[in-house]
Amino acid sequence: MAVDEQPGVVDPTPAGPVPDRPATGAATAYARHLLFAGLLGGHLGLIGSVAVFAAVRGGVAAASAAVGSVVAILFFSLGQAVVLRYAERNGSGLLVAALGSYGVRIAGLAGALSLYEGAGLQILDRTATSLGVVATVLLWTTAEVVAFARMRMPVYDLGYTPRPPRSGK
What we know:
Elements: H1 26-56, H2 59-85, H3 91-118, H4 126-150
Helix pairs in contact: 1-2, 1-4, 2-3, 2-4
């Protein structure tokens, strides 16, 4: 017996779209694809920088490179998550959300760096941390650019047929 045939049983799925959840369309799919590509590139940067610093300068440098890489991955992931959330909005709404997210992330990084420097802790190897960030950012960005270049996005109306020209009379 089907759910709607049973007396007193109500189907738990809503009949229409859920109002709190934006529709997912092509822009969301593109943003999700770029997020996954960036995550792949970022994690390659993490693994590579940790491996190089572990071999060259030891455990503290490897851990420092890992910290830098994780910070970069979190920074980009949070920004891409905001873009993913607002992907289906109009262009100005997406721009405001992305720039607002960027400002909050930069302020958070500045605050964390100030707290670290103010605490007088010298736990991390600055060179390894910096190069871990740089390697991760470069590989994240490269992966996104490659993924974007390979995306197939129809930007022209392929179904358009031009009307015949009017006569000049």
